[in-house]
Amino acid sequence: MTPNDRTAKGGGSYGPLNSPSLNSPEHESLIGSSRQRSQAYGLREMDAPDFSVAGRGLLNQTLEENSFLYQHAAPVMETLYQQIANTQSMVLLTTRSGMVLHSLGDADFLEKASQVALAPGVDWSEKSKGTNAIGTALTEEHPVVVHGSQHFLEANRFLTCSCTPIFDPYGKVMGALDVTGDHRSYHQHTMALARMSAQMIENHMYADVFPKEIIVRFHARAEFLGTLMEGIAVFTGDGRFVTANRSAQFQLTLSANALGAHTFSSLFGVSISQFHDRVRTAGTRPMNLCLHNGVTVCCISDVKSRMPFGGMHFGATASASDEPAADTQAKAPAKADAPSTAASRDAQRRESLSSLRYLDTGDTQVAAVIQKLYKVRGRDIPVMILGETGTGKDLLAQAIHNDSPRAGNNFVSVNCASIPETLIESELFGYEEGAFTGAKRKGSVGKVLFANGGTLFLDEIGDMPKHLQARLLRVLQERKVSPLGAGKEVEVDVAVICATNKNLKDMIARGEFREDLYYRLNGLVVRLPALRERQDLEVVTRKILASVCHSPTPIGISNQVMNLFHQFPWPGNFRQLYNLLRTAVVMVGCNEDIQMHHLPDDFLEEVQMADLVLPRASVKQMEVIRPAPEQAPAMTAPSAPPPFASTKLENVALGAMAQALRSTGGNVSVAAKMLGVSRNTIYRKKALLPADVWG
Ligand SMILES: Nc1ncnc2c1ncn2[C@@H]1O[C@H](COP(=O)(O)OP(=O)(O)OP(=O)(O)O)[C@@H](O)[C@H]1O
After folding, report:
1. How far does the centroid of ligand 1 lie from the alpha carbon of residue 307, in Å?
2. Of 334, 506, 338, 339, nearest to 410 (Cα)?
3. 394 C-alpha vs ligand 1 centroid, how far in Å?
4. What is the mean pLDDT of each run of 10 residues along the chain (695 residues)?
5. Which CATH number fits domain 337-529: 1.10.940.10, 3.40.50.300, 3.40.50.1010, 3.30.1490.20?
6. Residue 166 CA, ligand 1 centroid: distance in Å
7. Which residues line ligand 1 (CB under 6 A)?
8. Does this complex have an ipTM over 0.90?
9. In CATH, what number does 3-204 get?
10. Where do the record's region annotations for Disordered lie (predicted)?
């Protein structure tokens, strides 16, 4: 379904999708169709609900697959929950198939909800539970309230549920957000709250789904920018329409399908390069643009820079995919503004962008690299960055650019390994209109010219085909480019940074890399240390954690895990650490410290294969369960469990929870206090605990 279809289903409203009001004819017909489907699935009203919970492996896998959804939804769920706290309700997040991923709720109500298995790992699709808000909203791809007796299964009729699908920026359902409560506590505003929360999640996703594209946020009234009402439209670097949210479609008075035929300039009346200039001048202030339909809107755009730890800030950055079509570029592409304004802008930008200073987090090798780079700053000396995969070469290149006087112009990154060999020439050097059959109608300026005035970053330079190495060398020596089929040369002024994890000298010896190009590129050679060599592992771990966990309380990491991190060889370097922490944060839910059992099994397998042994002392420091000293129940304490057996640790944790619950007659609040964990931690494991623990 496209956003356009959603518009049709939403009855023409471009605000939050409306659900048909309770007991209206539309609502009754929707419930009626759902009941028919429930019967067709072979369900009977008096059936006991299917309580089965996905096994731990499947739940973990599902969490991992849905980690993007979870990360965006979890903080919004917290806010939503705060608004409905103490109303005998809970908030649930599900996958698009209806499996519950995460739940937050009032302790009393959670007890009741657990009786009908409203818990992570349980399937609430229509097929499994018949008419219910989650299953029905997902089937209808529309917000739905299912109240009391409208539930198909008798067992669920004490509930009132308001659920709305969550759509990805392309209009595909990716999950659902549900508020469920006791049917006596039904409130008509609950659905609106749920829908607004879902819209908040949807709007927040744009920046992460489109890290390289141009995102324009606009509204006729400046005060609506940054709110749920703002229009969001996404364009490629050369101005092609990608997608837009419902508000944008409404303001542009065009459906998503119709928008597909438009470009940035046909909708906003200015070319992308003019727009960039205006963004630079306006800074973070909204600027006025006139839409194609004559409506004037206030607009902001974050033309982005790739930041370490996932941050995004204002800046002029282009990546390999941001190449402008030749028609939007002047013959000599964008130069820096006048030096005086450029200087003050650069100063501001340096504060906000990924900068060398930002990468200096306490490792002496990195500090030495940064010192060297400061010395050549602004000298246009070619920099060659060496380092294993994932050590941050790309990030360093970006920081060098952002800290240079060229920061006001484009940073163009070309991954020589990922462009097909047949395309690399035209991608780099551009082509003239009609240069070859099938070429874009207007031709293309190519990455090198697009970087004019800025920085060209040649990543994986060792993978550049030999015949193109000669052409690149000529460009670097003569500072001129001749696009394919152009028959003329265009002057170009770029700073060049290249990176590789190959040994270029060996390649030269084997005749695979040109020696003359090597010496042209290696003005200053710097090597980024592997993560296992760095002394600032703890600092970077905490920084990454802060960036991947959006919880107001910083997430911690247990000593045991940190000890393991210190011993692990990190073959994938930062990339591996980043992905690992992102997954662990999903497992831990931003409320506790990361423990061994939150680490993914494949990582623990790697650990075992690397034959690492943790000191026994660190095993004893295990903080999975931290009982209050005086009240510690006689639990199956982990005197010395095998270091990396995550399942065993999980069992220890479950054993402790079971004992604590038994000793408190099933009182979750007291048990949680005894164990030093949150109530939600226990509820999350509820399905894995034996039935007799509940008193
Ligand atoms: N100093 C750092 N602190 C935190 N995260 C970092 C750091 N350096 C890199 N990263 C993160 O690690 C990942 C890989 O970084 P990057 O792409 O710069 O590495 P690379 O050396 O260019 O990798 P490759 O050789 O595979 O292209 C990115 O997600 C990046 O944000």
Report:
1. 10
2. 334
3. 6
4. 35 48 83 95 89 78 86 86 81 94 79 75 93 96 94 92 94 94 81 90 88 88 84 89 91 88 89 81 80 89 47 30 30 29 38 69 94 90 93 92 86 80 73 50 70 91 87 86 72 93 92 94 95 93 79 78 91 90 76 83 79 43 30 29 39 69 77 65 72 74
5. 3.40.50.300
6. 31
7. 308-309, 359, 387, 389-395, 459, 501, 540, 544, 574-575, 578
8. yes
9. 3.30.450.40
10. 1-37, 318-349
